[in-house]
Amino acid sequence: MSNELIPKELTGGALTECSFDDLVSGGDSYLARLQLYGSKSDAVAENLIGMGRYGLVKDDIIVDLGPELDVIIICYRAKALQISGDNIITEHDPRSDIYQKIKELSKTKDSGCMHGPEFLVWIPSQEQFATYFASSKTARREAKKMEPLVGKAATLKCKLIETQRYKWHGPVIVPCSTPLDVPPIEDIQEQVEKFKNPPKSDIEIAADDNSDRER
Questions:
Q1: Strand runs (DSSP E) across 30-152, as ranges?
Q2: Is residue 45 part of a domain?
Q3: What is the pLDDT of residues 88-123, one digit of tens each?
Q4: Chain-wide mean pLDDT for the chain?
Q5: Domain enclosing residue 127, as ranges
């Protein structure tokens, strides 16, 4: 039995050339972030996504992309992040005092500080640009495999890492042999320009990012 109360031909949405997504986007220019969710993530504990899976996050909405994902790696920049109360401080200049202070503080467990390369990627399955921040020790080590793949396709996988005391999920980066759709060059140029010219430092609302940062 249909739950349609009013015929579609009478409703039909707004009389506009824009899509509904365009109307509700609010003109937001920031990119979604790509994140590997480990067992210690709040989102996993809240059953918003399974552990060991990649999620695309924007506006507190997580799109589950699974344990393996094909992307195109476009470029990268430095990033240091410090959580402070309801805000986080972002710094992209690795030569700045702020960056170096956050980097030093990141050595202390549960400091709320992290640093590493942040990559601009294209996710063909979502037809979307996103950022991927390799902020943990494990992610930074694996990110060494991403730098040679800039301008190329990569497959992001996940592995469970075990020591005598801990278990956590870490990323695995390998070249992708599957042909991937590339966005228009002008769109890439626009995103690269924004990505490589961020404010010297900025403050934004803090978000859940508890993916085993200390490892």
A1: 32-37, 53-58, 61-66, 69-84, 87-91, 113-123, 128-133
A2: yes
A3: 889 999 999 999 999 999 998 888 899 999 999 999
A4: 84
A5: 28-205
